[in-house]
């Protein structure tokens, strides 16, 4: 990662120009896609390979979710022997949950103005 980031300056105005161009309407969309893939490949690490949970993992995840949903608690205590990111992925893709980074229990989410 350090090799990729050695020449990277997050304050470089060219980076702002690149972002403006990538996210502007119109233009050569295929060129934008190629450029974005190249930039992401140079500056970001790839995530873990996603695979569907096994039947035993899915059963454990669903059981934990069902037990949590049937109580009035706001904190879910994860103690399963499977990677937490797999559980979070399952939670969002199969059960429609939205994750947020706040440590507060939120009753309602509103868009910012």
Walk me through the topology.
Layout (H helix, E strand, L loop, with lengths): L1 H4 L7 H10 L6 H15 L11 H15 L14 H12 L18
- What count of helical segments does DSSP give? 5
Mean pLDDT comes to 81
Please mark out the parts with pLDDT under 50 across 5 or more consecutive residues, or reply none: 1-5
Number of strands: 0
Counted up, domains total 2
User: What's the SSE pattern?
Assistant: HHHHH
Tertiary shape:
elongated
User: Largest sheet at a glance?
Assistant: none
Percent range of helical residues: 40-55%
Cα distance, first to last residue? 37 Å
Q: Could you characterize what this model shows?
A:
The protein has 113 residues and is an all-alpha fold. It folds into 2 domains: 2-43; 48-113, no CATH class. 50% of the residues lie in helices and 0% in strands. The chain has helices at residues 2-5, 13-22, 29-43, 55-69, 84-95. The longest helix is centred in the N-terminal third of the chain and has 15 residues, at 29-43. The model is unreliable at 1-5 (pLDDT under 50).
């Amino acid at each position: 990662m350090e090799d990729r980031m050695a020449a990277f300056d997050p304050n470089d105005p060219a980076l702002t120009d690149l972002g403006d161009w990538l996210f502007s309407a119109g233009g050569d969309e295929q060129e934008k896609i190629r450029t974005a893939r190249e930039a992401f490949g140079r500056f970001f690490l790839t995530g873990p390979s996603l695979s569907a949970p096994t039947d035993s993992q899915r059963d454990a995840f669903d059981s934990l979710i069902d037990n949590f949903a049937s109580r009035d608690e706001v904190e879910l205590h994860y103690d399963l022997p499977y990677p937490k990111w797999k559980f979070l992925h399952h939670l969002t893709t199969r059960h429609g949950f939205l994750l947020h980074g706040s440590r507060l229990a939120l009753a309602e989410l509103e868009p910012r103005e």
